[in-house]
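Chain X:
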Amino acid sequence: MEEPRKTFSTSDGCVSDVVTEKYLVRSQESASHVQLACCGRCCAFPLDGNQLCVWDVEGPSHQLLTLHGHCQSVTALAFGNRVNPLLLCSGALDCVMVWNLDACRKKLLQGLTPRATVLGTLLGKVLCLRFGPDDHAVAVGAGNRILVRDTEDQSVLGELEGHVGPVTAVEFCPWQADVVISVSEDRSFKVWDLSRESLLYSSSVLTACPLLSLYLEAGSKQLVTGSADGQLWIFSLAERHRYRLVAHMDLRKRREAFFTRRLKSRLCTLPGERQLRSTNEPEREEVEATLPILSFGHCDLSPVLNSECGLASCASQNSRHLWIGSTAGLFMLNLANFDLEAVLQYKDFRSLSIRVAGSCAVMSGAHEHKAVCLLTSLFGNEIAVLDIDVVALLRSQGSLAAGRSLSVLASSCVSPTSPLYCGTVKGKRTKPVSQTQPAVRSVIKDQPLVFHSKVRSSGYTAAPCVNMFAPKTNNRKDGKRPSKCRNSYRCKDYPWENSIPTKPGQQVTVAHKPAAVCCIQYSGDGRGLACGLANHLSLVFDASLTGTPTVFPGHDAAVSTICWSHDQKWLLSVAQDGALRVWSRRRAELLLLLGKDVFPRPVHSAQFYFVDAFLLLSSGPDVRLLQYHLDTCRDELKRYKPRSSFKPVHRLSVASGADLTSLSAVNGFHSHIVLAAARDRSLEVFDLNAGCSAAVIAEAHSRPVHQICQNQGSPFAAQQSPAYDLFLTTATGDGVRLWDLRTLRCERRFEGHPSRCYPCGVAFSPCGRFVACGAEDRHAYVYEMGSSTFSHRLPGHTDTVTRVAFSPSAAQLVTAILDGKLQLFHAE
């Protein structure tokens, strides 16, 4: 037995503050491929084959508890769930035993030999063990059977048969005591009803390699399983989800993406360790062809994030994390966004005794800032216990970055040097000269006989006036607004209860010939729905999709962007020909045209900004801010001569120089933040109050982002202030991601909808509780913000759902279909 020792850095000789090798044992027999046991207080491992060693993490480092009882080599170990008394179950080819560790320590102090309770003998090769929630039962995976034994009277509670390969992991369901879940080398998982000894569900074959590990997340009711080829699956075990697949990922690809993000974000490497290699360099020391997932461990980061004041948002503090133990290292997975928060590779610490693990068990320690990892060597006989500082690990890899002050809500007034300043003083301009200097004599010039733009009728064709005066006798004030004002704006609150629109309603075809609907948007009052078509037209429907729509012709290509002004008077449209047009909503006529010759590059997307004070658009790699003037008083005799104008105010370019693919900013209230997505898969945040770039998020998706959707709320629904800092991004083939502007982190990922080839849109609900998105399987999907799997799947479509939009004033959802139809959904 060797004394505990710490790992030292090979570069400068300093003690590493991330990982410490607390204990190292060399056994006479290899303990590789043995189910190890690790809890927040103790670690248990086999020594010399048939001996059991229990090391107390809280006690002195040299104090070990050695237990003798097995004649054959121990193949599986498991701790109980209760702390007092703490039970340990050990399985071997000869028998399965349960040890009371507190009683064993007392007997050793008395000079007696500890004894265990034998649950069964000659059960076969035991590969996995697991205690029930109350420690009254133990599930034993022996061969392709699962034997459940009572720990008190050693009776048989059940025998579950159905796997065609050896059972590699078994778990009791935390929220259903009679449910047992198992995985096997037959590459499937099964759900059992222990009370009836029957099979509830059997999955299909998930992969070509055996499933090795299993974990149940009680908070989200999810099942996590990993295979020998590094594949990881997450299934939902909620009753109405019917074992739905939530996410599937490759651990090796997640690791490469993690290192790529670190490299592009210019983060520091682990302190005192060697430089991490670039993902493009060949890894000469790489041993494993894959990353087998050996085990899972509970990881609670709430105390860590709470102690780091200002470094994490509420969404980050409530997220769930999971330790993944593999042959090459430990990985910390965020179960909300399915990204790796930290990677600890054994080979990066050259003083560690074990570089390639054969078995692994990891668990958060007694102090939540620490984690304990128990390793056995794959090629040797070493057994090591590692102490990991979670805070130091997260800091060294940039997961706990310095807090930022970015927010969509403006926290200060507009600076006089800001490009937005001219929009704030627009209402304070001096009056024209003809009004401010009345004393100056006006010179009457020669004019034609008829010089008025509009000539009034002489009255000969009008009906004679009979009543000269007719007073209003039914005028009621009662402190209320006139009926005209009251009907022009709905002051009804958004329905919070039963606000999920799932019932199909009206469906309309937007054109006589099939034309795809490229974009849709509701007006701010919820009365109008604008949509852009692939046949060069823009239409405005009534919110109920009834009646004849208003047509806005004029574009030469498919309309890719449609946008309402804040006061619902104007409509903006951008087509794929690069032209931008601003229309009068009431008269359906063109007021402003920015053609292809105005900017060096075609306009890709545009919108009204800063409560209609500016036009914000993207052209190539640039974000341009324009001040505009719309003249509605047209000369009837000179209609061909437009009098509307615009003036460039400011231009910003993305750091990478790549073309922009999406642009978003809040127009419902004054905000200084503009979000832009580039073709190099990056997101950039611009602060127009400072007139510069504020932050860059590298590798936001695996493909370029085609839509950014901000939570802009609604005049009919109130939300908390932090909710407005959330925004969505979506990319073809990479799902939907939820981001928090305050931390610039992905807080959740939604991947349950198929969108592999066609860019499908996404939208926030006015209440901020739901996210809707289109899909290629002729359905629309609705997610709850607190869940990674969809809550509703909306049928009734005849083709790919390209765009979705929530009504701001009612519980309604409109979906756009690729074959040129609009489908309305409303609440039950």
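Chain Y:
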Amino acid sequence: MYRLASTLALLLASTTAVAQPAFDPARITADVRTLSSDAFEGRGPATPAETRTVAYIVRQMQAAGLQPGGTPDASGKRGWTQDVPLLRSEITGTPTLGMTIAGTATPLTQGTQIAVRAALTGQKQVAIQNAPLVFVGYGVAASERNWDDFNGQDLKGKIAVVLINDPDFETGQGDFGGKAMTYYGRWTYKYEEAARRGAAGILIVHETAPASYGWATVKNSNTNTMFDIVRTNPTSSHTAMEGWIQRDLAVQLFKASGLDFDAEKAKAQTRGFRPVPLKATFTARYAVDAKVITSKNVLGRLPGTTHPDDTVIYSAHWDHLGIGQPDAKGDRIYNGAVDNATGVAALLELGRAYAKAPRTARSVVFLAVTAEEKGLLGSEYYAANPVYPLGQTVGVLNMDSMAVTGPAHDFGISGSAKLGLLDMLTAEGTKRNRRFSPEPHPEAGSFYRSDHFPMAKRGVPAISFDGGSDLVEGGAARGEALSRAYVQDRYHQPADEWSPDWNLAGMTADLDLLYAVGHDLASGTAWPNWSTDSEFRAERDKTAAQRR
């Protein structure tokens, strides 16, 4: 593991010994139960539920003793929020979707064989008529890897059909990091690249293993209201039609084209792959309600005593999917109890602990961001429009989907980043007889799916905490089984609800660890950094002059 200079040096930079606070499972439970109740309607941005959610978080921050940490007004007075302008887009009515496969008209049902998103280009209507389908492998153009799935293919007026994840996901060996997903494997990249190529649309073939979640998650995440940051030229980042198709439909498409799906996928895993036109066309017609709305990030703050311009940030996203397609029981409210009412409850509980303790030398900010479920949009907006300078942001500790299955012998972070902040976390974990475990499923691309990422790519040392899977009760086998069950049965589904069977002892242990690291940073003068070979190191070093 990378050491910034030495973990000891970082820890000795803290000058204030502090007694660890007691974190209250009853308060945490009350916050989670409230935020994930049906009354909060799944905490969808730009809905009445957002107003209730933001008001609740502000009330709890006020009661804890935090100060407003949001955007200052013309007089310099800070409020509790940061306005986040977003493009809100929703399909109105039932979309007409279909393919003509080898001459045979094949209607498609939204949410069943296909899941298309509302256009994020700002247009009010999507009208695609018999657009040719072209298989472009994994949809990757990576010049530094001498890899180009497009090979000169003109996609104008065509629909790109692409595979999810990286070309070496299945083999575990190759130019894209083996099982660990690169950004090229993320669906966000594939959408962006299709737009850069001028495609009329893109369809990603869903397979559970490389996607790391089932079709229910795809359907629920894509067939409801969509959001994006407000872009000057949205068509440079989005095609008019973006969506996913089931693997069975892809197999049918390839067979009708005289191709074997698995054989073509194997070809796509090689540098010699060439795009393959399919004997099929795609048709789509639907209206889109698109408008710019303003959502809110919420910020509470405790100013530092001697270095108030230096900032340590704890973050968590407050939003979830809102009201969407009903499940088998007819439930339409996506409560988001684990994801991420637990993270917000953790943020509030940490705020209470800091407010009761003596003030630290540096400022501490508690940031609840919006629209994570729509593509990390609240954190992306904050990172692009920081309330507190990124060059003087010491580090970010993000919390998403906290532990509800009891204490663990280990802990982790999303991804495999190497940075001094992780060294500090590991050292504090060792004091508590907890070890750091590398991410068990790097193929899921979790590093790119949490709110620390927009800060990390701008150079700020940032991690998204994971409570570990080697459980005190049941070990790693039980932890892995419970994680799989959550992803399959509750993740991005109405069943993600609070349960009286939760064991929050793991969450309170995690808060103890996160508090210790953040407090050391806020009390000292250390500036953790990325490893010298990190892709984020250069961005951080650009702001070195801002740090004393």
